[in-house]
Design brief:
Mean pLDDT: 91
Strand content: 15-25%
Low-confidence stretches: none
Largest sheet: 5 strands, antiparallel
Order of helices and strands: HEEEEEHH
Helix content: 40-55%
Radius of gyration: 21 Å
Strand order of the largest sheet: 1-2-3-4-5
Number of strands: 5
Structural class: alpha+beta
Number of helices: 3
Shape: extended
Distance between the termini: 71 Å
C-alpha cells in the first residue's frame, strides 16, 4: 500500500512540475508566436496581391483584419482576406486575393493539417492554378457537386474546404464593399 501511495505522490509531483514548466514556456512564447502569425498573414497578403499594387494597408471589420492593395494614386486594386473552412484534418485557413469584381487572384495557405501527400496538395500549383482568374461572384464548388473546380484526387473534402474558404473570403468582401 505504501508503494502505491509513493508512486501516486511521485507521479503527481512530476505532473505538477511539468504543468508549471509548460505554463511558464507558454507565457514567455505567447507574444512571439502571435507576432509571427501576424507577420505570416501580412506576408501572405502581399503574395496574393497583383504586381501592380504599390502599397498594402490594413483595415478592420467585424471579422478582424483584412488588407487593401492600392495603386500609386491610392485607388483600391485588390483585397486580401482570410477565409476558413473545415477540411479533413481540421480547419483550413487561407489568405485569398480578390479583385473588387470578385475575380480570384490566388490564395496562400495560413493553416491546414491535411493528410500528407493527399490533402496537403491544396498548395500544389496544378490545383491552385485553376482558381486564378475565376469569378467568385457566386459560391465555388467542386465538379462532383456541380461546380467548376477539379478536386484533388482522393482529397475531395480538402478541395471542398478550399472552395469553402474562398467563398467565406468572397462573402466577407461583399460585406466590406457594401458599406
Amino acid at each position: 500500500m505504501k508503494k502505491i501511495a509513493h508512486c501516486i505522490l511521485s507521479l503527481t509531483l512530476i505532473s505538477a512540475v511539468c504543468v508549471g514548466v509548460l505554463a511558464v514556456v507558454n507565457g514567455v512564447t505567447r507574444e512571439r508566436i502571435a507576432s509571427l502569425k501576424q507577420r505570416a498573414r501580412e506576408n501572405a497578403a502581399r503574395l496574393v496581391m497583383p504586381a501592380s499594387v504599390k502599397t498594402v494597408t490594413t483595415a478592420e471589420d467585424a471579422d478582424g483584419a483584412y488588407y487593401v492593395g492600392k495603386d500609386a494614386t491610392g485607388r483600391a486594386l485588390a483585397y486580401a482576406l482570410t477565409g476558413k473552412s473545415q477540411g479533413y484534418g481540421g480547419d483550413i485557413v487561407l489568405m485569398v486575393g480578390l479583385l473588387p469584381d470578385r475575380t480570384i487572384i490566388t490564395y496562400q495557405k495560413l493553416e491546414a493539417s491535411e493528410t500528407p501527400g493527399l490533402g496537403s496538395n491544396l498548395t500544389a500549383p496544378s490545383f491552385m492554378r485553376q482558381f486564378k482568374g475565376m469569378s467568385a461572384t457566386k459560391d465555388l464548388s467542386v465538379r462532383k457537386d456541380g461546380g467548376e473546380v477539379e478536386a484533388i484526387t482522393s482529397a475531395t473534402i480538402t478541395s471542398r474546404a478550399v472552395c469553402g474558404a474562398v467563398n467565406v473570403a468572397r462573402a466577407r468582401l461583399d460585406k466590406i464593399l457594401a458599406k
